[in-house]
Amino acid sequence: MKFFAHSTSNPDRSDWQTLAEHLRAVSALASKFAAIFNAGELAAAAGLLHDIGKCTEDFQRRLAGAALRVDHATRGAKLAVDKYGPPGHLLAYAIAGHHAGLADGLVSGDRATRTTLHDRLCGEGLPPLLDAWRQEIDLPEKLGNVKTFNRVKARQSFQLAFLARMLFSCLVDADYLDTEAFYDRVEGRDSVRDAKAPSLETLRKRLNEHLAGFAADSDVNRIRAGILEHVR
After folding, report:
1. Which of 76, 88, 114, 153 is the Cys-Cys partner for 95 at CB 3.0 to 4.6 Å?
2. Can you tell me the distance from the alpha carbon of 142 to that of 151, in angstroms, rounded to the nearest whole number?
3. Each residue of 166-205: pLDDT tens digit?
C-alpha cells in the first residue's frame, strides 16, 4: 500500500505528495532550524515521526474524500516515547501538538482545559497503525542525551519546557512550509517565499504612506500622534 501525506483533486493520485517525501522534507527542515540551538538530531526525529499516523487505512480513506475525523498525530508521539524513552517524551509534546498545540502534561479532571499528553499517549480510539510504516522511513536507533544547554538544577524543569517549545516551533514551521511548497507546486504558483525581500527604505516608505492615512482628529488620537512622533 502506498501512503500519501497530502492529496489533490486528481483521482489518479499522480500528483499527490507521498508520505515518505513529506516526512523526509520536514525532518531536514526542522533539523536545520533546530541546529542553531544544537537540537538538530531531536528535531530531525520529530520530523520523521510527526505524520507517521497517516499510515492507517482511515487516514488514507480521508485523503481520498471520506468524511472521517482521524487523529494522525498521536501515533508518532507514542512511537517517540516507546523507542526513545525520556528524549522521546520531550519530542512527543511537539509531535502530538503539531496541529492542536502543546498539551498539558499530567493535569486531568476538573483542572484540565484540553486532553492531556498523558491521556493521548494511552492511545484510546486510535486507528490501527499499519506495519508498513517501517517501509516509509528509517528511524535512528537512538537519540543522544538532551545536551543542548547547560543544565541548572534550580531551573531544569523550565529549561526542558522551553526546549520542548523550541522543538515544537521548529516542527510546526517545517511542516507548514513543506505543505505550502507542495500546494504551490501543484497549483503552479510562484512561492512568495522565493520573492526578494523589500529593502528597509522601501518598507519605511510604505509605513509612512500608511500612517499618513490616519488623522489626529480627537484628543486621544492627538496624544497617539505625539507619542508616535516622539518615538520615531
Report:
1. 76
2. 21
3. 999 999 999 999 999 999 999 988 887 877 888 999 999 9
Q: Which neighbouring-strand residues pair with 4?
A: 18
d(CA 166, CA 42): 11
Q: Under a CB-based contact definition with an 8 Å cutoff, are residues 80 and 57 in contact?
A: no
* Grid cell at residue 206: 510604505
Domains by residue range for the chain, with CATH: 4-194 (1.10.3210), 200-231 (no CATH)
- The cell numbers describing 194, all together, are 522565493
Q: Of 43-52, 128-137, 174-183, where does mean pLDDT reach its minimum?
A: 128-137
Q: Phi and psi (nearest 5°) for 32?
A: -60, -45
Provide the mean pLDDT of the chain: 88
Length of the chain: 232
User: Any residues with CB less than 8 A from the CB of 122 and at least 6 apart, and which?
Assistant: none
